[in-house]
Structures are given as structure tokens and as C-alpha cells.
Amino acid sequence: MIKEYLQDFISLFFPRVCMACGNTLYKHEHMICFSCQYHLPKTNFHLLEDNPVARQFWGKINFAAAASYYYFNKGGKVQHLVHQLKYKGYKEVGSHIGALYGHDLKKSPLFTTVDAIIPVPLHPRKEAKRGYNQAEWFAIGLAESMKAELDITTLLRVQASETQTRKTRFRRWENVKEIFQLMDTERQAGKHVLLVDDVITTGSTLEAAGHELMKIPGVKVSVASIACAVR
Q: Considering only CA atoms, which of 81, 99, 94, 97 is closest in space to residue 17?
């Protein structure tokens, strides 16, 4: 009871707001208000083997399954949500969304056998500058709710890439095709690995990371993201 009164008192001066819409959160809401949780544009791609995200990789890399939690619309609430995670320091947004999505993925036959979650790594200099890897925080929530291993050491980013903004698909692939390195070929051998990132646009970064992971003997690789810019 005392703890609740203290939280109410603190909220008078530092109100908790929804990371998607900016409205004040009620007592039992966390990070994202119930209204946004209901109305944010979910893709439900995890229920469909043939979906727009999966099609992006057809003929390029043999992912077992591919999905995204939300549709990404420029200027929309999902973009604001990702912006809070990626640039405003609210890393807990990532783990919260991961926990929500993990519950859905665990119920899907496409993802129920996932053994480990691997976030797309940032280059050490970029991660040091930002203070954290947003994909890793998404992975933390996924690993917890899916009861899977969190693996942040098997895949390493060895080169810093330029920004992908305004690049063609070919230029994006050229920008990332040799930036990852596999550090361990045994840890995930024969397992189902879920490679995750924040937003999928052309999929070039996930494709490059996936090619590296597929050097692991007997591995099965699927991909997932918070949002995608395809329909």
C-alpha cells in the first residue's frame, strides 16, 4: 500500500506516458497503454508461412520462418514507439514488446521449436555511443516469454556500416554483406535459432546475418522483428 502511494506521488511530478501515443498511463498500464496495445497494427504474420516478410527473402536465403509484430507506417504510432526505443533511451520498450510478441510466437507452429534468440549485433563503437543495442532488448523480452536462450556472443559485427537510408536494395546489400562474423559454430549446432532486429525494410541486414549463422552445422534460422515496412 505504501509503495502504491509513493508511486502515485511520484507520478504527479514525473507522469508515466504511453511510448506509442504519449497519453498518461493508468496505474495498471506499463509502457504501452491498453488502447494502443489493442489498436496498434499487428501483422499476425507469425500465423502464416507465406507472408510479405517471408517473401522478401525467397530466392535469397532459406529462412525457416519470418514475421514481424507490427506494420511500420511513417509518422504513425509504431514509428514513434521504435523511435523511443532506438533514439530516446527507453530500452525497456524493447523488452516489453519482446515479451508481448514472444507469447504469440510461442503459440505458432512456425516458432514453437525456437531454442535460442540472437539479436542482430551493433558494431561495438556504435553500441558504446548509444549505450545499448535495441535489438538485444527486444531479444531479452522474447527469450523470457518464449523460455529460450538469449545468445549475444555467437554472432559479432566486425565492421561498422553506413546508414541504410536512401540506399537501393543492391547498395544496402553491398553495405552489409561482410560486416558479420561467426564466433562459435558449436553452441547452436542443430538448433532452431531466431534472429531478431527492430525494423525490417529491405531485409538486407538480416539476410547478411542469416548467411553467417547458416554456416553453423545443422542450424535452422528464422527471423522476427518489432515492425516491418512491407504489406
A: 81
